[in-house]
Amino acid sequence: MSGVFDPAVFLPDDLLERIRERAPIHDRENTFPQQDLDELRAAGYLSILVPAERGGAGLGLAEAAILQQRLATAAPATALAINMHLVWTGVAKVFSDRGVPGLEFVQDGAVAGEVFAFGISEGGNDLVLFGSDTDAAPLQDGGYAFTGTKIFTSLAPVWTRLGLHGLDTTSDDAPKLVFAFVERTDAVTTSDDWDTLGMRGTQSRTTRLAGAQAAPEHVVRRIDPGPNPDPIVFGIFSVFEILLASVYTGIARRALDVAVQTAATRRSKKTGATYSQDPDIRWRIADMALAYDALPPQIAALARDVDERVDHGARWFTQLSGVKHRAITMAKHVVDQAMLVAGGGSYFSSNELSRLYRDVLAGAFHPSDPESAHATAASAWLGPLDS
Ligand SMILES: Cc1cc2nc3c(=O)[nH]c(=O)nc-3n(C[C@H](O)[C@H](O)[C@H](O)COP(=O)(O)OP(=O)(O)OC[C@H]3O[C@@H](n4cnc5c(N)ncnc54)[C@H](O)[C@@H]3O)c2cc1C
């Protein structure tokens, strides 16, 4: 990308407004935002991170992060669901930018309209990327059959390909953690079990795999379990943390905008002035702005470093889990403050802030969760625990 980046070119105002109008409906009815996906696909949004020479928009992670912030101001659940697809296309970009082959089919698939879901989370697997309870059984032809249960699979009703990992315990060089993509076949069952406090539109349902097969050309990586410098680990970690930070920063931005609008219209009977003239409310809005303003530049700087292949070495992991942690902590604080600025009206279910309040809580559960982010930072500054 060169020149000044205009997010409205890729996410036009009128599309954003239609997505915004539908958000409360999908939240109330607990449904997947199919029309949002259809319109975003038609606008080329699913291939923003695919290089132009392969038919995509050729954007970098820095531009995608700005777009995801913008999308989240309209519909956090839509942004979070699409995030999972963007993560895989972002990992494909990390690969192609570094001359690592193997994920071109993700780029071509995204251009062709495929929807990629992210099947990493498993119940009780706090090793996350570094281990898996899903069995990856090698097949004669070099493919793999996956058996296990993935939880919180966003885009559940609509994905066409699921990127996942599983553990190969039987090959000669086992154990190996296998990263691959499976299609939606009879070997994959999606439960209708998504009924949550917030982020209801993501429809992140449980996925059961009973020998779901990945073709040899869709087996992307076989790596040793545990922390690993492989590009698949860096690719997922960097793109995931930055885009996730973007979604929650977008929620904060919306809460701040709504709070400002409300302060300008609510009027005090005591003083006759709008609340925007009230010193306490002014302090609160300023507090929100001071917290919010820190995040977009941090996200932009780290995303640019990924795009430009800057090597932060071991510092990358604290930087990336740190920006995600700061974004979700900031966003929760900002939405809290916005509720107080808006007053009791924000407690009604019909009020947008009450939805943002529920949506923003999901941030703490995504990797890196607060415990993991703190453990990473503590190890970076104090060294590993004696054991
Ligand atoms: C809105 C939202 C969208 C998400 N989208 C995705 C996505 O698309 N892809 C993805 O990979 N992840 C996704 N995640 C998952 C997320 O990253 C975490 O993995 C998830 O929140 C689980 O967190 P936890 O381990 O703290 O939960 P926990 O509460 O520890 O576990 C979650 C569930 O797993 C089961 N469980 C817990 N421990 C065990 C055990 N020992 N044995 C068996 N079952 C157990 C329980 O049923 C429990 O309810 C999403 C999360 C949220 C909130």
UniProtKB/TrEMBL annotation:
Annotated keywords: Oxidoreductase
Keyword Oxidoreductase assigned to the entry: answer is: yes
What is the protein name for this chain? Putative acyl-CoA dehydrogenase YdbM
Gene3D superfamilies the record matches: Acyl-CoA dehydrogenase/oxidase, N-terminal domain, Butyryl-CoA Dehydrogenase, subunit A, domain 2, Butyryl-CoA Dehydrogenase, subunit A, domain 3
Q: Does the keyword Chaperone apply?
A: no
Query: Which parts of the chain span the membrane according to its record?
Result: none
Name of the gene encoding the protein in the UniProt record: ydbM
Organism expressing this protein natively:
Microbacterium oxydans
Residue stretches making up the Acyl-CoA dehydrogenase/oxidase N-terminal domain? 17-86
Q: Could you tell me which residue ranges the Acyl-CoA dehydrogenase C-terminal domain spans?
A: 243-366
EC code(s) of this entry: 1.3.99.-
Q: Which GO terms describe its molecular function?
A: acyl-CoA dehydrogenase activity; flavin adenine dinucleotide binding
